[in-house]
Amino acid sequence: MPRPLSGRLVIATHNPGKLREMQELFAPFGVEAVSAGELGLPVPAETGHMFAENAAIKAHAAARATGLPALSDDSGLCVDALDGAPGLFTADWAGPNKDFRAAMQRVENELRKRGVTAEGDRRAHFVSALVIAWPDGHEELFEGRVHGKVVWPPRGDRGFGYDPMFQPDGLAQTFGELSSEEKHGIDWSLPEPRALSHRARAFVKLAAGCLKRA
């Protein structure tokens, strides 16, 4: 049985774009979300071999440091023709300065090295693993995925990370061309709430198990 969540929550991230998305997702539930960056917490070494493992490392570190429940998202872009890369190293490809324009160029360069043209096999998916950890060591895991393809050149200046080069199935726009509501908005009025982004899809599962609307 999932453990209910309320009150104050630490979002174990130093990424302002990711924090903004998580705060928007939690807004209807009356949960006060503060980031690890705002609290001055260090970034733990991500030594896991799966998204869920790295999310758990970050969430438990933040929960132990603050005495509060902590949520971590570990997510990444997996390109089929690159054998799933950048995958776990999605953020690393952006370098120490978090230059995602350079990271997107690297994805394209690697595809071209493998002979993948603009019309070739550019299938990809985003993965999000959300882990909530409590100070007593309890944790809950929720995962979401969205499938699509990578495009070149990137389109749009919304979102963050690789959003401008990812076009989800069924849409003509990239994540970088969608508003925040279009990308990760959730229609809570439906019996089975629908969401587009990988992070929002994981959050729908989290909300069903751990949250009550304010």
From TrEMBL:
<keyword id="KW-0479">Metal-binding</keyword>
<feature type="binding site">
    <location>
        <position position="74"/>
    </location>
    <ligand>
        <name>Mg(2+)</name>
    </ligand>
</feature>
<dbReference type="GO" id="GO:0036220">
    <property type="term" value="F:ITP diphosphatase activity"/>
</dbReference>
<dbReference type="InterPro" id="IPR029001">
    <property type="entry name" value="ITPase-like_fam"/>
</dbReference>
<protein>
    <recommendedName>
        <fullName>dITP/XTP pyrophosphatase</fullName>
        <ecNumber>3.6.1.66</ecNumber>
    </recommendedName>
</protein>
<dbReference type="GO" id="GO:0005829">
    <property type="term" value="C:cytosol"/>
</dbReference>
<feature type="binding site">
    <location>
        <begin position="160"/>
        <end position="163"/>
    </location>
    <ligand>
        <name>substrate</name>
    </ligand>
</feature>
<dbReference type="GO" id="GO:0035870">
    <property type="term" value="F:dITP diphosphatase activity"/>
</dbReference>
<feature type="binding site">
    <location>
        <begin position="198"/>
        <end position="199"/>
    </location>
    <ligand>
        <name>substrate</name>
    </ligand>
</feature>
<keyword id="KW-0460">Magnesium</keyword>
<dbReference type="GO" id="GO:0036222">
    <property type="term" value="F:XTP diphosphatase activity"/>
</dbReference>
<dbReference type="GO" id="GO:0017111">
    <property type="term" value="F:ribonucleoside triphosphate phosphatase activity"/>
</dbReference>
<dbReference type="InterPro" id="IPR020922">
    <property type="entry name" value="dITP/XTP_pyrophosphatase"/>
</dbReference>
<dbReference type="GO" id="GO:0000166">
    <property type="term" value="F:nucleotide binding"/>
</dbReference>
<dbReference type="GO" id="GO:0046872">
    <property type="term" value="F:metal ion binding"/>
</dbReference>
<comment type="function">
    <text>Pyrophosphatase that catalyzes the hydrolysis of nucleoside triphosphates to their monophosphate derivatives, with a high preference for the non-canonical purine nucleotides XTP (xanthosine triphosphate), dITP (deoxyinosine triphosphate) and ITP. Seems to function as a house-cleaning enzyme that removes non-canonical purine nucleotides from the nucleotide pool, thus preventing their incorporation into DNA/RNA and avoiding chromosomal lesions.</text>
</comment>
<comment type="subunit">
    <text>Homodimer.</text>
</comment>
<dbReference type="Pfam" id="PF01725">
    <property type="entry name" value="Ham1p_like"/>
</dbReference>
<feature type="binding site">
    <location>
        <position position="183"/>
    </location>
    <ligand>
        <name>substrate</name>
    </ligand>
</feature>
<feature type="binding site">
    <location>
        <position position="75"/>
    </location>
    <ligand>
        <name>substrate</name>
    </ligand>
</feature>
<dbReference type="GO" id="GO:0009146">
    <property type="term" value="P:purine nucleoside triphosphate catabolic process"/>
</dbReference>
<keyword id="KW-0378">Hydrolase</keyword>
<dbReference type="GO" id="GO:0009117">
    <property type="term" value="P:nucleotide metabolic process"/>
</dbReference>
<feature type="active site" description="Proton acceptor">
    <location>
        <position position="74"/>
    </location>
</feature>
<dbReference type="InterPro" id="IPR002637">
    <property type="entry name" value="RdgB/HAM1"/>
</dbReference>
<keyword id="KW-0547">Nucleotide-binding</keyword>
<keyword id="KW-0546">Nucleotide metabolism</keyword>
<comment type="similarity">
    <text>Belongs to the HAM1 NTPase family.</text>
</comment>
<feature type="binding site">
    <location>
        <begin position="13"/>
        <end position="18"/>
    </location>
    <ligand>
        <name>substrate</name>
    </ligand>
</feature>
